[in-house]
Amino acid sequence: MEPTLLQSDVEVLTEAINYTWILVATFLIFFMHAGFAMLEAGQVRSKNVANQLTKNLLTWSVGVTVFFLVGVGVEGLVAGSGFEPAFAGDATSWIDWLYGAVFAMTAATIVSGAVAGRAKLRAYVTYTFLLAAVIYPVVTGLTWAGGHIETLVGTPFADFAGGMIVHGMGGIAGLTAAWVLGPRMDRYNEDGSVNVIPGHSLTFAVLGTLILAFGWYGFNVGTSAIMGEGAFLGDQLGRVAMATTVSMACGAMGAGLVAWAKTGKVDTLYVANGLLAGLVGITAIPDTVAWWGAFVVGGLAGAQLPIVFEFVERTLKIDDVCAVFPVHGSAGVLGTLLFPFVAAPGVVDSVANAFVAQLTGVVLITAWTVGATGLIWYGFKAAGQARVTPEHERDGLDVSEHGVDTYPEFGRPDVATDGGSSDVIRADGGEPNDGAIKLVTAIVRPDRLGAVKQSLAEAGAPSLTVTNVSGRGSQPAKKGQWRGEEYTVDLHQKVKIECVVADIPADEVVDAIREGANTGEPGDGKIFVTPVERAVQIRTGKTGTDAV
Predict the structure, then answer these.
(1) CA distance 221 to 209
(2) Phi, psi of 455 (to 5 degrees)
(3) Under 8 Å CB-to-CB from 412, ≥6 apart: which residues?
(4) Contacts 24+ apart (CB under 8 A), 408-413
(5) For residue 421, what pLDDT band results from cuts at 50, 70 and 90?
(6) Which among 123, 128, 98, 126 has a CA at the least distance from the CA of 110?
């Protein structure tokens, strides 16, 4: 029977809404790359920030094109439908390609956080190419596209939005690559003890976390909001939205509680990473989990984070810079395996059969990911292309790999504050310092620079040179924490002020600096006065006091 005009209009409308929503969810997931960029940049040292950002940009750029040209075809080949790359389909099918590509690139970019600070850019980009072309498509060909696990064990493998297929796989790949590469320089002492290497910005890390959480609604809820039979699947949609939200919240609380139990402090980075672990944990099963199961999965995913990170760091001796395995790998495995135990009533016919299917999927994905990733990175290592040289690693990958300095002011992000007056007061004549030239050098707190400038200007010595430095003197060392681990800071951030004076008594300059820099606390700094043998003005060639 021919459809009526009304029926045709409803079908067309449904299809249009579906495609539009798929693209909206796709764009939300794409925005997660901004979150990954900020999260990872915040957890690396300032000298490696540009490198991390570049890897995120190239992950997307290289990955989506390779997935379009090769990856979709490999996925179809593994699934059993033959090799048909995305470019061979019609324009409508390219919506499905793009939707699949953002998932694939999420898996790919996870790896960059694990190998931060020492992997060559060319090695990482080549691995991204191979992941998008082969490694990830094989995983989706075995699962979402092919359903081979159900054929093997008789029960479907449940992974709604990629808890294991995307995040678990990415976390395991990152751990494998980091293991092959070896730890960053100075990460471990000769006796095997750990040196904590803090990242440069908790602000970036937390901002990245919240951006990722926002994009995750596209990951989970966006996957669910597809119209069928002319209506939204309201029950599933509500369940997915609830589970995603509750699990992320419980992940943050679970990680914070365990960190507090271990160290007596609620570690900010663990709370942020725990929030993401809760999201990863629920991503495989938000459409089927009972309401209380969302609390269980999120809480456990967050709670395991500090424990697994410590195991990876101290027992396995693997330097996973951005904690990608405990956040994505082990949390993804945990949530996937918990499926039959936390499912809503009536979802699972046999807990044993469902668990066997989940376990089979986890084992297959893990074995393939470890094998393929290990083979590729060992190949890079054998060819001498996996890791930058020790000199480049010391200098930082921003300079050695890209020729840029992310924070050019004073070569570091901690630029001394400058709140002093810009007024210039010129001194006149006289024969202070017995006609000689003196160099007054002061090491002071960065926050006192403005006050020192003001005091010097009032003393008639406005000309000065300022450098950011770090050093050690009588000021006691400080204790810091990074992911719940304590480290010692015995090189303190200071500002070095240099004043060359001829027509102003050096003692007056010393008094001015001391007045501006004094807080009365240990660590205020020191002042040194030394004679200057000769001075030459470059522009005029004047020498001696005339040059000053």
Answers:
(1) 18
(2) -65, -40
(3) 46, 468
(4) 410/467, 410/468, 411/468, 412/46, 412/468, 413/46, 413/200, 413/201
(5) very low
(6) 128
Please tell me the total number of residues recorded for the chain in this structure. Answer: 548
Question: In which residue are the tokens 């495995």 written?
Answer: 333
pTM score: 0.80
Residues 234, 243: Cα–Cα separation, whole Å: 14
377-418 pLDDT, tens per residue? 999 999 999 999 999 998 899 988 998 888 775 444 333 334
Q: Which two tokens stand for residue 477?
A: 């060392």
Q: How confident is the model at residue 10 (pLDDT cuts 50, 70, 90)?
A: confident
**Segment holding 153, helix H or strand E:** helix 148-153
- Position of tokens 């000309």? 463
Rounded to the nearest 10°, the torsion over CA 266, 271, 272, 275 is: -170
Residues 6 or more apart from 193 whose CB is under 8 A from it? none
Among residues 300, 304, 302, 291, which one has the least CA distance to residue 338?
300
Q: Report which of 116, 110, 106, 108 is spatially closest to residue 181, judged by C-alpha positions.
A: 116
Helical axes 169-181 vs 93-114, angle rounded to 10°: 40
Cα gap 243→254, rounded to integer Å: 16
Rounded distance between C-alpha atoms, residue 295 and residue 166, angstroms: 22
Contacts of 111 (CB under 8 A, 6+ apart): 124, 127, 128, 131, 170, 173, 174, 177, 324
Query: Which parts of 156-233 fold into alpha helices (H)?
Result: 169-181, 202-224
* Beta carbons within 8 Å of 101's beta carbon, 6+ residues apart: 63, 64, 67, 68, 71
Sequence-distant (≥ 6) Cβ neighbours of residue 176 within 8 angstroms = 369, 370, 373, 374, 377
Q: What is the pLDDT of residue 8?
A: 58
- Cβ distance 131 to 138 under 8 Å? no
Amino acid at residue number 91: A
Tokens 């796709």, residue located: 26
Closest listed residue to residue 175, CA positions, set 284, 318, 18, 71? 318
3-state percent helix, strand, coil for the chain, nearest multiple of 5: 60, 10, 30
Q: pLDDT for 105-126, tens place per residue?
A: 999 999 999 999 999 999 999 9
DSSP 232-289: E-HHHHHHHHHHHHHHHHHHHHHHHHHHHHHHSS--HHHHHHHHHHHHHHHHTSTTTB
User: What's the rounded Cα separation, in Å, for the pair 270 and 307?
Assistant: 11
In sequence order, the 6+-apart residues with CB closer than 8 A to the CB of 292 are 342
Q: Is residue 225 within 8 Å of residue 25, measured between CB atoms?
A: yes
d(CA 425, CA 456): 9
Q: Which of 66, 64, 52, 51 is nearest to 106 (CA)?
A: 64
Higher model confidence: residue 121 or residue 540? Answer: 121
